[in-house]
Request: fold
Amino acid sequence: MDKTEQGLSRLQQSIDHYQTADRFWAEHCGDYAFKTACTNMGSSLTYAELDTHAQHLAAYLQNCTQLEPGDRIAIQLPNVLQYPVIVQAAWRAGLVIVNTNPLYTATETIHQYNDAGVKAVVILANNAKMLEEVVPSTDVKLVLVTQLADLHPLPRRLFINLAAKFIRKIVPRYKLKCAVNLRDAFIQGEDSSLKKVELGPDSPALIQYSVGTTGVPKGALITHRNLLGNLLQIRERFNDFFVPGEEIAIAPLPLYHIYSFTFNCLFLPAYGAHIVLITNPRDTSGFVNELGRWPFSIFSGLNTLFVSLCQNSNFRQLDLTELKLTLSGGMALTQSVSEEWQRITGCSIIQGYGLTEASPVVAVDNPDSFCSGTVGKPLPYTEVRIVDELGNEMGPGESGEVYVRGPQVMPRYWNSDDQVPDKEGWLATGDIGSFTENGFLKIIERKKDIIKISGFPVYPNEIENMISNHPDIIECAVVGLPDETCGQVIKLFAVSSNHRLSVKQLRDYCRERLTSYKVPKLVEFRSHLPKSNVGKVLRRTLLEEEVTRMQKLRKHI
Reply:
């Protein structure tokens, strides 16, 4: 048996030992019972307190509701102390978690609840009124309503919750017959015993929705085996880098996003890390003030978040000498942002690559030996190959679609008959990439975002990366618009710090650095670009806006 087979065998033994992701969490966190687990809005929970709250809520779900193991529970919350508690409680009760964006409209929420067959929901009181329209159109039988500070000490809890309701007036009145106050659920659970639920590694743990590889929202069915496999793989890559019980991590990305969920909610607790949950990272001033309170050593973010912080004068004055790991994922990292972050913080950004269907991490740089411009090497026991349109495997330096196989790859989509992954376990990611001679993976572009100019492929990431180096450009996005002559033409959307920068000047800048057919034919300056709730620039929204505008113009011709 070679080293790879021996390692894979040890991985499988570890998965069989833990069985479920909550047991992985509980076994590791027992060593850090009195260490601070999470902090949010000025209050903290130790790992022991988090564990106790999870036990009580799990007992309530088992004994005081009609929920059965395998039922789906939606967590529709921002980053608050309740989130990790609910995750552990749901799994201990044998439920399947459906992470749901708290900013979803009623229509979006109804679709996701019905597709997943959601029976119970945990939601912030601020958003509970929206469920008045949702619940009658779904199978939801229980709504647990929580307020921002429900797990804070009494004086602070009253101050924050009452201020939200009566001073800031961000908690509308709602009427839900199936609503239960989350604090009441904790109290009822204290008087109930928790029965062991017989779940195994192949039991569903999570239904995580993503546009993913298909272009339409689908729920990736993530098993406990998938999560355990990914957690153990990440641990093997980073095991010698963290000091158990000593790390302070900043978590600005929402936990309902798979990147933050796996890293901040499941992985870092295994090292007894203190995780600072940021409820609203878009409030840059408040966010930077919070950063100033902590000698943090770990920061996970994405390109647009790094841009926002680097532009903030107060952030540039922070003492960041303890920062030793900055992780980037979720979208392409531009060279200019990477260099600016390094200059300001003294810490290089380590890139990773993943997707929801892979739980999510596929590759990540090693902090001690990384290759700039790549997303690192595939995780241990992860196979990655580059394939052309005819199915031929490509060699180093040759680009093609990225295919992935490994223990973290989901078995299937929820409510779908599609053979994804294929019969041999390979997942076609929809991303175009290549390998370097040394085995580092480069992600070039999303397959569906490639622009074809007279048959020549143009990668938006390449153009955006180059234009981001312009000293007056804050951020930009490139899309391909339909054109009768060339098939498509390139349009650039740019946010500039210099209102005098002209379209001609920007196009001249591009001409000096790009071959002629890659130079944007159209340029539009904007005050901001549309972004997802995790801060990813939405090219799709820009494209839809332009296509709609073009169609209206044709009607008037």
Summary: The longest helix spans residues 47-63. Residues 110 and 134 are 6 Å apart (CA to CA). Residues 45-199 form a domain with the Rossmann fold fold (CATH 3.40.50.980).
